[in-house]
């Protein structure tokens, strides 16, 4: 049985005050909730503060990006070793915002995946099609291409203990989530695609859905057999909404 993971991607939001308030609210609301792994990915500036604030709770620390270089003259970057040093565990890579605004290629994202595995960190590999690709019927083609960049260079074993987040670009921040049936169909495709290389790895793989997940639609999404939690943007900035999403994942796991 897979353990769902609900992770909050704060994106470019937050302050010292907000970090303190939000984590205090989550600690309080989530104590005693089990059956779901929980992680938060604040901006890199607040990782140390967040690390201290989650101490002793079962909330894990995540980050939103990593550089492909280990150290050296790479102004503005943050390495895998630094993220590990500060206590981060789950690292988002290949988010569509980075693919779009920072022109990150499938190959670059695969290199980041390898760097994280080498550092003993957990890659959360984001994949997903744009609206135009969706309308052109290219969802499966895009998702398999983005996964194959890792599968074909590192092998299926690299996904052991890793996470894939299916985030259709048209659903991110739009309030227009994929329907549970739409998301389930793509998740099943992804799991089957990995299973062609390694069935055991595919069976264990955590497949999160991301894109306008909120406290209203979470339970229905998590009731789908191949949806193992969520990568949450906007709703992760509010303790009550994020808590409700975590509880929905825990309930779905306990019911299933
Ligand atoms: O991009 C996302 C998480 O990484 C999803 O963002 P929203 O939940 O705000 O749609």
TrEMBL record:
Protein role: Involved in the gluconeogenesis. Catalyzes stereospecifically the conversion of dihydroxyacetone phosphate (DHAP) to D-glyceraldehyde-3-phosphate (G3P).
Subcellular localization(s) per the UniProt record: Cytoplasm
Stated name of the protein: Triosephosphate isomerase
Enzyme superclass (EC): isomerase
Any one GO cellular component localisation term in the record: cytosol
Gene Ontology MF, one: triose-phosphate isomerase activity
Subunit: Homodimer.
Pathway stated in the Swiss-Prot or TrEMBL entry: Carbohydrate biosynthesis; gluconeogenesis; Carbohydrate metabolism; erythritol degradation; Carbohydrate degradation; glycolysis; D-glyceraldehyde 3-phosphate from glycerone phosphate: step 1/1
Main localization (coarse): cytoplasm
PROSITE patterns on file: TIM_1, TIM_2
Similarity field: Belongs to the triosephosphate isomerase family.
Catalytic residue positions: 95 (electrophile), 167 (proton acceptor)
Pfam families: TIM
Binding site for substrate: 9-11, 173, 212, 233-234
Annotated CDD domains: TIM (cd00311)
Biological processes annotated in GO: gluconeogenesis; glyceraldehyde-3-phosphate biosynthetic process; glycerol catabolic process; glycolytic process
Taxonomy of the source species: Bacteria, Pseudomonadati, Pseudomonadota, Gammaproteobacteria, Enterobacterales
Gene3D superfamilies registered for this protein in UniProt: Aldolase class I (3.20.20.70)
Domain of life: Bacteria
Reactions catalysed according to its record: D-glyceraldehyde 3-phosphate = dihydroxyacetone phosphate
EC number(s) reported in the record: 5.3.1.1
Keywords: Cytoplasm, Gluconeogenesis, Glycolysis, Isomerase
